[in-house]
Amino acid sequence: MDESVTPIHQEAAEAPQHSARLPWYAPVILIGVLLMAAYFRFTGLNWDDVYHLHPDERFLTMVETSIAPVNNLWDYFNTTTSSLNPNNNGYTFYVYGTLPLFIVRYVAEWVGQTGYNEVHLVGRALSGLADVLTVLLVFAIAFRLFKHYRLALLAAAFSAAAVMQIQLSHYFTVDNFANFFVYLAFYFAVELLARDEQPQSAPPPSEQTMQTLLTRAGENLGIYVLFGLGLGMATASKVSAAPIAMLLPMAAFIRWVSVPQEDREWMAAVLFRNLVVAAAVSLLTFRVFQPYAFNGLFSLNPAWLSSLKELSAMSTGDVDFPPALQWARRPLTFSFTNMVRFGLGYPLGILAWSAFLWMGWKMLRGEWKKYLLPWGWTAFYFTWQSVNFTRSMRYQIHVYPALAMIAAWAVLALWEHRTEASGWLGKNWRKMLAAAAGVGVLAGTVVWAFMFTRIYTRPVTRVEASQWIYQNVPAPINVRIHTGDQVYNHPQPFRAGLAVTYEQPYRYQYIPQEDGQLVQVRLPHVLGTGVNFADQTLVLTIRGDREAEFPLAVGQVSGAFPAASDPRGDESLVLFDVPVEARAGQPLYIEIRPGVEGGSFQLAGAIQMGIIRVNGELVEEALPEAVAALLPGDRYSIRLTNHPAGLLEEISIPHIVDWEGQTGEKTLRIDLMNDEPEQGLYGSAEVTSTFTAGADARGEGYIFRFDPPIALQQEKTYVLSLHFETGAGRLALYGSKHVNESSWDDAIPISLNDYNPYDYYMGLYRTDLNFEMYWDDNAEKLQRFLTNLDQADYIFITSNRQWGTTTRVPERYPLTTEYYRQLIGCPVDKEITWCYSVAEPGMFSGNLGFELVKISQSNPNLGSFEVNTQFAEEAFTVYDHPKVLIFKKTAGYSPAHVREILGRVDLSKVVRLTPAQAKDYPGDLTLPAARLAQQRSGGTWSELFDRDSWINAWPVVTVVVWYVFIALLGWMVYPLTRLAFGGLVDKGYPAARLVGLVLFALLAWWAGSMGWAVTRGTLIACLAVLASGNLALFWWKKDEILAEVRGKGRYWLTVELVAAGFFLFFLLIRLGNPDLWHPYKGGEKPMDFSYFNAVIKSATFPPYDPWFSGGYINYYYYGFVLAGMPVKLLGIVPSVAYNLLLPSLYSLLALAALSIGWNLAVPGSADEEEGHKLENERRGLLAGLGTAILLQVLGNLGTVRMIWQSLQKIVAPGGAIEGANPIQHLLWGVQGFFKYASGVRLPVGPGDWYWIPSRVIPGEPITEFPMFTFLYADLHAHLLALPLTALAVLWAISVFKRQWKWADWGELAASLALGGAVIGALRPTNTWDFPTYLILGVLVVVYTALRYATPVQRLSILPVFWQRAAVAALSAGCLAAAAFLFYAPFSHWFGQAYNQVEIWKDARTPFGSYFTHWGLFLVVIFSWLWWEIRDWMDSTPATALRKIYPYRGWIQAGFIVLLGLIIGSFLLKVQIVWLALPMAVSAGVLMLRPHLSDEKRFVCFVVGTALLLTMMVELIRLSGDIGRMNTVFKFYLQAWTLLSVSAGAAFFWLLPAVQEKWKPGWQTAWQTTLTLLAAGALLFPLFGGFDKIRDRMSSLAPHTLDGMDYMPYSEYADNGQTMQLDEDYRAIRWMQENVEGSPVILEANVPEYRWGNRFTIYTGLPGVVGWNWHQRQQRAITPGDWVWERVNQVEAFYLSTSREETERILETYDVRYVVVGQLERVFYSGPGLEKFGLWENDLWQKVYEDGQTAIYQVLD
């Protein structure tokens, strides 16, 4: 036998031995466990008292009662005629398994319980029985698998007490049936492994025939057959159980690897045969027990497939299906957390999943055979269900028993763990821990199960709430019976619906509630009852006086008035040709009658009077419902039954009204009579009143008292008779009216005690009021809300179905969400779901005029201790213990107030999302109310930045403190930096400053993202955390670090000099031109500075949007966090800090480039470098400085081209040189040169020297490069990301050079974590960069791990390559995970709109433009590649070429493909491919060179990547881009970084060869060419730098570091008028110093890049709207109209003379300050500005005035 093979039985033998026999007491304990399981499952089986409150069960019950047993097998299998087929009985959408359906039906037939109120109880009993048998299977599986009866008993006990299994056992659903068959199949898979005999050995070769293979019975064929049976029955119960099929191949594989190597080939054939047999059996079983999934023998039924597809579509959530809303935005962990908290309970949940991880760890260590089945099944099925859209813990039912087994295994494994160590707990501490865990978890789980089953021992909440309603919510007639010390309410109905004839018309005195014009009357239900008329005419008249001869208006409607959609008749609308003037409080008299005698109708429902208000809005006022009102002399009688014995003292009627409004008194008498008339009258009670309407149109309430009281006998039937005894009019009686939430939920009250609550005519609580919460939020729904609230006395909420789901998608349901918040009075800092989950009467104070008067909640409990399960997923509570809430209208209800509150919801912002779409939709990009309030209250400018403080008073001090702080930050984090960058020669010291900024910002940002206020205290705490961690690292590695300090002092000093040099260089440039705006080439500094200020001022993250009040910045803003946190900590004035940040970032980029060049130039790692220290320092310094110069000092060749074109323009006709031939260009250039030499100026304008080279490609593409980026000085995302990209490259080089030589796993983790933090920061800083550098980082990790990782002992069963591959995959996964997880809050909030690419078909880049931009890099890299390949060829003997001979076909094909791509590119007019593609391919080929250093391989890869990026933008662009402007811009910058560092290294490597090996002629030519190119690239910083310094807003502006100082010296003309900016300067300074918090301001909005929004720019305060296009671009996931609306509203505000419109705009955007300055007077001149004086000290007060500039504060 192969010694490397461990058979299953041998592995088991080597494990601790346990007897395979059960001791006598084990079956006794098992029976006890099964009895406990039965107790929990059968307690309260009829928990809903036959009210069928589970909708899925209700559906199954209806199906079950509709099908019938068949007479023979032919009928059974006949899909089209079988009486067992639900499709043949009206249920065409039946997607459950049919096996449970058949089992329940036939058992119900056997026990005679097939009725609708019976069969579901049979189903519940069988469901519980199936789960008890599953518990038995758990015992059997665990015992066979682990050979330990104690373990098996514990597993069975865990499963017996699992609450989710218990709950499902109380439902007649298919889940438990499927689960039983799943674990039956599971048992047979385990049985296959657990057989004690060895697998049969192969027969002799002479006997290995097909006949032997097919006939030999070995390998337990019967087990495979039984597994197939279990699998088939499981899938016939529930199709989603099909994955259990995976267990049999897994078991077969384990057996296969357990046999000797020489027997495996034969064994594989046997196993394959057995698996085929099992598959065939399972298919046949499925065919038998799910017969109607087929048409014919094995043809699938299209109807069944169609139903499955429809179900699958609903399960994805990408459908408009209300129940799917509960899964919107649920995290991947949702089912896990619910399972742990509720489905298993915390004790078992924590133990089970901890055990799952432990078992997985043991599998990695080689003990995988015994654990693969339970662990693999749990892992697969749980993951599958967790990533599905519907992440229900109920759908995880098939892993609960497996988890019970795994949990029990952990307890016994811990008990039997061998240990020699004693420790302070003694030698047996593991046994003690195991005993405590086993006993404690089992006890806790049983207690939780007992608590949960208490919900089945009391009335379900909907029943309990219904009982309360009957006793407390008044019906039309309420018989109050005194039964000792209690009063029993016996509600009675009053007939609804009114018969209308010509002789007895409907008359009503209508009193309008507000002024307007009555234009229509809506009749909700009209039913024609005249038998002699096919069509009738209904005539409605309006009179101003009851006796008036001529009506004010007449309307009519004709038709048959059928009951098409409602048995009460359909809706009819009566329109008036002439509107009726309606005055609030002045009565109008309505009459409705048939048009001719003999006609008759029946009216029902509440008639709606349509009035057009003064403002043009149509509103409807509801009249009391049409009921069988009493005329004088009429009687209304009802039978009084089912009452208790007691004294009848009174009857209350909540509302009685005389419809006609007759002024005289009327008497209404109630007689209580015997059911047998001859026995006479028991007593009477009467009330005399005018019965006028009053405040409630239904009239007041009255009490009819019987004196003396009447004794009622319980079994006796009485007659209650109401008699309109005296008076004139028509009396109508009304009870309470409630409003339901939705048609999708079960209504209350339930019909108890023979009460009929909902009958159309005799229902106690009939209502047509329904919010229909799932309908779209719009104006119609708002009106529905208002109408329902006006008419309702109560609101019944019967579960969390609506408030727990619609509020999850507030973008679609903003009105519904606000309604729920206001109804209960949920505080803004609380989730609505939390408020309703914990709500008790009196706990909150609602704002809609309703109060919570009753909740019915059934929590799992143990005595007084309860667990609130409302926080579980909906399905856990909504069926058997939903929370019912009943709200009652208060006396303070005000329709106007409700309309005001709900009317504030902006329904124009509704976004119709499906539940699945909601997870990718971040919302309307506005801050939640609590976050917004926190932002508005914080960020006071004067508290953050004191201009008179020592750090701001003296600029030199400011610069020094700033520079030293950044340096100290780097020194502080050096211990961590060197740990993560340990592969570098310099240990990453130059990058330490940047690492410090990244980590400091990350800590602060996470604090703000979690809702903690980011104050100076918070930032100091973040520094303290950083310092503490690095101090610990320093102490751990102090010897090494101190040695570095001593040994690398000179190098560190060099680094500091370089840092200071680059900082001072650029500081001088900023001093030359510190202005933060320019009217023509100001760029996007206004937006950047506004965002920068907002980020610093924001209390939390995401930061509020200063250009969209109420919103947050939906842009890659994280760079401002990186830059802003030190500014906020130090309190440096932002306009000064801006001009310090640019030199700092320039210096940080230079340091990263220095380290990149240094580490690429110096071979080996830090440990190998010591031998040639001095030489290496010299080489590294030159290479590093060269790389930095190439990256960020030199420009492209655009200045050279600009000079050449300018010379031509001097002499070209009209200065136009486009379209000329090359000879003409040459002639013009020469002539122009002589003209220039003679004194003619070049046609170059101010700013052109730094602007034009950044646009070398014709058209719209931007071709920026770092020197331009910094010189232009927009603190934009790409600038802020540049140092991070260099740091990411440096980290990748560190991993490369380290060659996977980690001191321990901690070092690897630190490096991957920091790499993830750096690369991940690119996503929220400049998203374009993130994919490129993440791919770079991942590939570097994979390459180095595959090449250098040492074998992993725990994976020794795998070949070395696969061990390394596992390490590579895990490490790369950790890097990517860190990159995403560190910045997860950004992803949570960010709404990504532009995420698709499209083919670019327009003009491509001319080769001349391409070379102008990349020429210097291309020449250097091309030269190096050519030399390296030549050297490779020269050093390779001819005999070595024979090795590639077998691959010559592939090589030839490659050349053909390359040639084809080049030719194809010319056909597509892509001019750059002929050079870029061969260079990229050459770089790739060069990577294959043996013995090539890792540094050179890295550069080859980077070169190839960069060249591919430059080719990519010729073919594709980002959808939504302006042409390909930003596509070229962003990817060209990435390519510049990669090519510049590559060119720096290539130049350094190539230079010695040029000097030593090249021929003098080639040497001279190359050096001359390179010198000319470098000189040309150097022209940009020279010409462009001086041009930028000269191109200022005003020549009088001082040279300071404050970017605002240009304003007092500048003027600006716009719209034909000139403005002095000094006024705005002083007003901005006033606002900075005097405005508290971050309130909204309103100022002029003008086109982009002009002087608009200047106050939001320089204060960071939120304005109503900023730059139109940029806001639409950044908020592109929302309709662009939202931004346009704000732009228009700003203009409307300044131009408006309407007080109402002005107040509405101020309130809509919560404006607190209004600016009226020169710009506002220029753009909004006219009478609208006069309002500021007219309404001063009324609507606002003037708080600042200077010349033409005033600031007004809006009054509360």
UniProtKB/TrEMBL annotation:
The chain crosses the membrane at residues 24-42, 91-108, 128-146, 151-171, 177-194, 240-258, 270-289, 339-359, 395-415, 435-456, 953-974, 994-1012, 1018-1037, 1049-1069, 1115-1133, 1140-1161, 1181-1200, 1275-1293, 1330-1349, 1361-1386, 1407-1427, 1447-1468, 1473-1492, 1498-1519, 1531-1552, 1564-1586. The keyword Transmembrane applies. It comes from the Bacteria. Keywords: Membrane, Transmembrane, Transmembrane helix. NCBIfam families: Chlor_Arch_YYY. This is Glycosyltransferase RgtA/B/C/D-like domain-containing protein. It comes from Ornatilinea apprima.
